[in-house]
Design a protein that fits this description.
5-stranded antiparallel sheet
Length: 976
């Protein structure tokens, strides 16, 4: 049954409805799914998988604050002691028109609101895809255009990643407009629309925009080779080149700060040569196991069976047509189609190509540009649709019956999905491959049997079933996914509830800590309270390393609360703690207990130092960067200069604490005394059943990290002098800068202090007893002791190496006690010298008094080029202090110190954008009155360069990786 929409009608209402109708169908499907699965606002479930809850929701909270005038969009005060979010603005599509809807959302419901944003974005995807198809393939029937547009909105990429990383959906929604702009430029030579779309894409998301441009480069090259008249190639190559360059330059005000931050962040730093990296890329097998990555790869083709059938049937029928050998246009287009299929297919098959398209690496999300697969196949299907599909008019009664049958099948498939095993990727593989295979076979049969054309009414019903199955299964947390504890979004609401219930005040400078890690990493953004904790993946290059040297834990690109000491917390001006586990009254005073459904209590830190500390300028001359652990090991003849692992800094926290204390107090005595004398080592055996119990108790699900039947116990004894808060750690010097999960220590060590087992709280389990975890692998607080003996027993449940030898000698045990009397004296010394602190969205002003001896100020802000510092209006140079602080000299008397944040190179980027815009407008005006002609030699050079790039990419990015992939995968399967 043809839905009549006359595209040439003067009735604007019908035209608008024609564009909106695919979006309305998409909206209807999404609403049905949300209602059926009880997803907000139709229930309490959420779309909060993986990064949506881990990074997107907190960053949306920051964006919400910025839109309401409570934050700088470039800078986040709350995480990582203050974080440059220039990169995150683009990587998370924060400058996107879709995010204007966030303004209407209550701040406490941002995580839930992601479902609404997802619905809006899929609606727009259908509309923009229809607009592209209608522009490019206007002669197609409306039914086909609308159907294909809806299929794009429910392609495998969207089904997979909308619930995981909704900011990417902004690019998926706008990508058809970028390709429409490219199509217009190729046909008419008009570049303005293309330039604007390139700029918009890079402003919204530089990463996916760059990946999209690689696609345009490749597709444009195939167009020039197969579809373009030789006389026009030079001109069209010039247009693509100059249009792309201008669009990128227009977005420089966003791109320059982004890349300035990237160059300074921990995301950079691969020291291998490009050749070494290339061989590493192409030597990766494609499929390794039934894991999430492999599932994502096959899901990119979900719903694409119909389009494969249309394309290959269309190619086959065109080749069988009379006069095909003499029809150069048909032959060229077939080769063009094959080349485009090869471009998107090789990426999915050859991992080397995929890695290169991801610019050298990726972590999770196997095909981040997978939307181009669906877009390419759908567009090529539009070109061949008239050779394969036929519109049919069916009677109303038959249409109703067909609709009812379609609904019944959808309901039946939803029931089958509900019967799938939980947490089983194998079940997911089988289920979705079965759906794809069944649909593919049906489409092949339909094309084969219906000689006069595959009826669109039948295709609509089949696509409806496939779309609904995918949307129902993949919207919201799929039941077959496995989730690590940090991947649950409950922490967002926990932070919201705790903040409201405990009355936690907002402050970027009076910082908070969550020692038991029950609030995950990005809770400070939700809570609007400054902290060290951070996972916005935007920390400066050495920040994480320095936090580890101070005793904190290390995981991926995170900064973590765990591992801090009472002194290091005081230095960064932690004034309160929020926790589920009860905190030691020696270090914290309970301020308020949680009520109702809030498990958290609020504590006041007993030992506090001012936000800005005035001290002697000799602080600036102390070298905090030495690897003190290395020097200590060498001096004790436990290692050699050449053989020691430079990356292990397990004892550095003791030296850093003592150096900092001495500088601030003027006291030459140590604040931290190292304790722990090895008094004995013993071995005992456990049964296999006990081993299984230990694995279960420790949440150890890694097969190659199973605990062993042989256990080794080390006992350390010492007498604590005075009153001391005691901390300890065990570091594996074999793993270098790797995360704790590669070590045999991972979830295998239990610690007893004076016979009592110590908690090792971690994300997802505040009662965990096993060290080390991903998120708690630094210092562990074991108690406050006063003039008493302490016995520490370390029970290693995985002490043997791969050769069966005891390997605990590779671990560095450290135990130190912080003298609380000395710390108390230091806090009292500075109590009457509190600095006056005020702040704005991107600045902090500190008022202090200097003297002849106190002529230097240390502030717990990480030094970077983004900060401009003035003292009484005069710009001052600053110095990095111990990796976590900034030092600046001050004058005698009153000093007003102002730290102002401005992203590095922001002004340069803005200047480039403005100059390019002015130049572009001037050229357009001149061209309007006097046609500007580009010299032929310039166009020829552009074409030559373009073709050279295509040849290089064809060989290095496609041919070699494809051959290498075949060899590597065969070797992998054979176990060679």
């Amino acid at each position: 049954m043809e839905i009549y929409m006359n595209n040439s009608s003067d009735n604007k209402g019908k035209k608008i409805l024609g564009y909106l109708f695919p979006g309305l169908i998409t909206l209807l499907v999404m609403l049905i799914v949300l209602v059926a699965k009880g997803i907000w606002p139709f229930g309490s479930s959420r779309i909060d998988l993986f990064d949506n809850m881990q990074q997107v929701a907190p960053l949306y909270a920051h964006l919400w604050d910025a839109m309401h005038g409570d934050a700088s969009i470039w800078f986040d005060w709350y995480t990582g002691l203050g974080t440059n979010v220039s990169m995150s603005m683009s990587a998370f599509s924060m400058i996107s028109p879709f995010n204007l809807f966030l303004y209407l959302c209550p701040r406490d419901y941002i995580l839930e609101f992601i479902s609404v944003l997802t619905v809006i974005k899929t609606f727009v995807m259908s509309v923009t895809m229809y607009a592209f198809i209608n522009k490019r393939y206007n002669s197609l029937s409306y039914n086909i255009k609308a159907l294909f547009a809806v299929a794009y909105a429910f392609c495998g990429y969207v089904l997979l990643y909308a619930s995981c990383f909704t900011p990417w959906m902004d690019i998926v929604a706008l990508f058809p407009l970028l390709m429409m702009a490219l199509d217009i430029m190729e046909k008419t030579g008009k570049k303005l629309f293309y330039i604007i779309m390139v700029a918009v894409m890079f402003i919204i998301n530089y990463y996916l925009a760059a990946m999209s441009l690689v696609y345009i480069l490749l597709v444009g090259g195939m167009y020039l080779i197969f579809m373009c008249d030789k006389k026009e190639r030079c001109k069209k190559a010039w247009n693509v080149g100059i249009g792309t360059f201008t669009g990128i330059a227009l977005s420089a005000f966003m791109l320059i700060p982004v890349f300035a931050q990237l160059s300074q962040s921990q995301r950079t730093g691969n020291t291998e040569s490009l050749v070494s990296q290339y061989f590493s890329w192409i030597s990766n097998p494609t499929f390794r196991s039934f894991s999430l990555g492999e599932f994502e790869r096959i899901m990119m083709f979900y719903g694409m069976g119909l389009f494969f059938v249309i394309i290959f049937t269309g190619i086959h029928r065109s080749m069988k047509a009379v006069g095909y050998k003499n029809d150069e246009a048909a032959r060229r287009f077939n080769w063009y189609a094959i080349s485009l299929i090869a471009i998107v297919m090789v990426q999915a098959i050859a991992e080397g190509t995929n890695i290169m398209w991801h610019f050298g690496s990726y972590n999770g999300y196997t095909l981040r540009n997978g939307y181009i697969i669906a877009f390419t196949l759908i567009c090529l299907s539009c070109a061949y649709a008239d050779k394969v599909l036929v519109n049919d008019c069916i009677k109303k009664k038959k249409a109703v019956i067909q609709a009812v049958v379609t609904v019944i099948i959808c309901a039946f498939m939803a029931v089958i999905y509900d019967k799938l095993p939980v947490n089983s990727y194998v079940a997911a593989f089988v289920f979705f491959i079965a759906v794809f295979a069944v649909m593919l076979v049906i489409h092949i049969i339909g094309v084969t049997v219906m000689k006069n054309g595959y009826k669109v009414s039948i295709v609509i019903s089949l696509v409806t079933v496939e779309v609904f199955i995918g949307a129902f299964a993949m919207t919201g947390p799929p039941k077959f996914y496995t989730y690590a504890p940090y991947q649950y979004g409950d922490y967002v609401q926990l932070a919201v509830n705790a903040t409201n219930n405990l009355g936690i005040s907002s402050s970027p400078v009076d910082r908070v800590t969550n020692p038991d890690l029950s609030m995950n990493a990005n809770y400070p953004l939700v809570m609007k309270r400054g902290s060290l904790s951070s996972f916005t993946a935007a920390l400066q290059k050495n920040t994480q390393k320095e936090t580890v040297r101070w005793g904190h834990s290390k995981y991926f690109l995170w900064a973590l609360d765990s591992g801090g000491t009472v002194f290091s917390d005081a230095l960064i001006h932690v004034t309160e703690a929020v926790n589920i586990n009860k905190l030691d009254s020696s270090l914290y005073t309970l301020e308020k207990e949680g009520t109702e459904d809030n498990e958290y209590d609020l504590y006041k830190a007993n030992y506090q130092l001012p936000f800005a500390m005035v001290t002697s300028s000799r602080l600036a001359s102390i070298d905090f960067s030495k690897d003190f652990t290395k020097l200590s090991e060498v001096s004790q003849q436990n290692s050699t200069e050449s053989g020691y692992n430079w990356n292990t800094t397990a004892r550095d926290w003791i030296y850093l604490h003592n150096l900092m204390y001495s500088a601030l107090s003027g006291d030459s005595d140590k604040l931290v005394t190292e304790y722990g004398k090895l008094s004995g080592t013993g071995t005992y055996e456990v049964s296999a059943a006990q081993t299984a119990d230990i694995n279960k108790a420790s949440d150890n699900t890694t097969p190659d990290k199973s605990t062993q039947t042989t256990h080794v116990v080390q006992t350390y004894k010492d007498k604590i002098s005075g009153k001391a808060a005691v901390y300890m750690s065990v570091a594996d010097c074999n793993i270098g800068t790797s995360d704790a999960n590669v070590s045999n220590l991972f979830r295998s060590l239990t610690i007893k202090v004076n016979g009592k087992q110590i908690d090792i709280p971690t994300i997802g389990n505040v009662s965990n007893k096993y060290y080390a975890t991903d998120y708690n692998n630094g210092l562990i607080y074991i108690g406050t002791f006063e003039n008493e003996d302490v016995t520490v027993e370390l029970d290693y449940a995985r002490p043997l190496d791969n050769n069966g030898e005891v390997s605990v000698g590779n671990y560095i045990f450290t135990m130190g006690g912080i003298d609380l009397d000395k710390l108390d004296s230091l806090c009292k010394k500075y109590e009457n010298r509190q600095s006056e602190v005020t702040y704005t969205n991107n600045s902090v002003t500190v008022k202090v008094n200097g003297s002849s001896t106190d002529d230097y100020v240390m502030v717990p802000i990480i030094k970077s080029d983004n900060w401009t510092v003035t003292v009484n209006g005069e710009k001052r140079e600053t110095k990095d202090i111990a990796g976590m602080f900034t030092g600046v000299s001050v004058n005698r008397g009153e000093n007003e110190i102002v730290f102002t944040f401005k992203p590095a190179a922001k002004d340069k980027g803005l200047l480039i954008s403005v100059l390019v815009l002015i130049a572009m407008i001037a050229i357009m005006v001149v061209d309007h009155y006097k046609n500007i002609r580009i010299p032929g030699w310039m166009q020829a050079c552009a074409s030559g360069v373009y073709m050279a790039i295509i040849v290089v990419l064809a060989v290095l990015m496609f041919a070699i990786p494809l051959v290498a992939s075949i060899i590597v995968n065969i070797r992998y399967v054979l176990g060679i």
